[in-house]
Amino acid sequence: MTPIAGSVAMNLAFGFSILTVLTLILYTRNGDQRLFLTGQRLALGISFFVFLATFILAYQLIQSNFDIDYVARYTSIETPFVYKITALWAGQSGSLLFWLFILSIYATIVILQNQGKHNSLMPWVIITLAIIQMFFLVLTNYVTNPFKPTDADFIVANGNGLNPLLQNVTMAIHPPTLYLGYVGFSVPFGFAISAMINRDTSPLWIQSIRRWALVAWLFLSIGIILGGWWAYRELGWGGYWAWDPVENASFMPWLTATAFVHSIIIQEKKDMLRVWNMVLIIITFTLCIFGTFLTRSGVMSSVHSFTGSSLGPIFLTFVFLIMIVSFGMMYFRRNVLKSPRKMESFTSRESGFLFNNMVFVVMCFAVFWGTLFPVFSEAVRGTKITVGPPFFNQINIPIGLILLALTGIGPLLAWRKTGKKSLIRNFTFPIITGLIVSIILLLIGFRGAVVMSFSLGAFVTATIVTEFARGIRARQKKLNESIVMSLVRMVSKNRSRYGGYVVHLGIVLMFVGFTGHAFDEEKEFSLKVGESDHVAGYNFELIKLSEAERPNHYAWISDLRVTKIDGEFVTNLHPEKRIYFHKNPDPNRRQPHSELDIHNTLNKDIYSIFSGVDSENGVAFIKIMINPLVEWVWLGGYILIFGTMIALWPRKDQ
Asked: I need a labelling partner for 239 at 20 to 30 A (CA). Which of 38, 151, 197, 402 fits?
């Protein structure tokens, strides 16, 4: 009976979405306030029924109700409790319901937050969000229903269980965080559409969604970083970014969203770039939906993607519909979208922001083209030409270095125009710092992109230090404060600006980590107990090889003693070779998996993979990778998140 209640709840949500749209359209025609209040309550009703359906499905997963096809496919009796919950977004229909669940949370917050505010914008904001909800409700009700009964003429005693790759704590956090970012851009998109319909393209709609855009960008950033963390620690290939199509699907909206959160500063402060901001938010939201298309259409091969289904054409149709309606609306509102002010100088902060945004869009296009080129080549020539990491690295490393340079240049430019004396004064210390670092690196023997990356990182860091030092000195001179008090009050008074600088520092540290990839080393070998081999100045001895049976898998556990060549002890590593569903009588249903172990230091990671075992002869097949500076990527991610939180924190005037 409970699964039927879930289906009924989704049907009611779909009906409420239609009524919401119709009621609020009637309100925009006759202005009857009662219709607006009714439309708001109907919109909250959509969210209520979506919440109910989501909680029902989660309960069925926890209870292992294998009469539901989705539960039987993605859980089993042996599946640990936490992974029964994460199974909610492990499959196609469940992930779509979860997407809708997050969208409904956002819609509820927007409605409650803006009661009595933005009365001209809110009706069309709610209509836009309700239409997006309606689209996902069509999918979950009529195309891929998560409450579909199991198609079997016998009682299903146990389910398939969750993919071992997904039985990881990070994967309990990564998809929800990524969805919070993806879905979050629905709100700025809704305000953008409403602003165009109302012919209100003043900074008002930007002020209404600036915090929303930053929150969505933060979640998308965290989701991407967590995805890299999961790939690094779970997939066993030694990297965190492979330019996989689904990775690219999250990276593309991040690029345009980053451009947008920079660009709205210009419109908010100077009422410029109106058209540009509309284009950026439309493209960002469209890419979020397009990313879902890539994941679910089956047109791209990826470790992250779902199997091919009929959802692909439906999503693609929705993507084209969004673009046609949005850009068509921009065309008909082109007169009111004209900015009243123009760029006054090439050497201004406004032009720096604009150039920075253009580079972001160029990188997005490069990633888009590389991701879809195999599909285009197959459609035109009949053969799929694979585009791998070398293409993306060759194109995007130079673009990334340009963006890194612009990260340091932008803060040194003044609004409207930067005078010659100011240019010399502002750029002298950062440029000298970058040159000194580059000379030192060249003397050591480094060349090419490594020198460029570290030197530009030093340049940007010097810029950030200069900006903080200048602000602290100004407060000390004026108010006679201590350094710490000046720093705290300065940041508190202008959280957006200085939080942004902290984010830029995080980006610099991440670039340091990215550059470390140029020094990776690896080796594969086999060992018996007591034998050893060496890699990159480290010795690896197999001390013990043991076995263990656990609730949902069988494991061979290695004990590797790691020492330096001179005998100095470093650590013990315990990579495992696991067999999930090992009790299944069908050998084809058993799933092997390598659980790696990593010794982390700020300088380098020692990455161990137990790739295979010959249990009869007691032989373990081991792969060791030495990955320099990877920890700097995660450290940079923490600082990026911290800086964004500073920027989001409510501002205090002093």
From this structure: 402
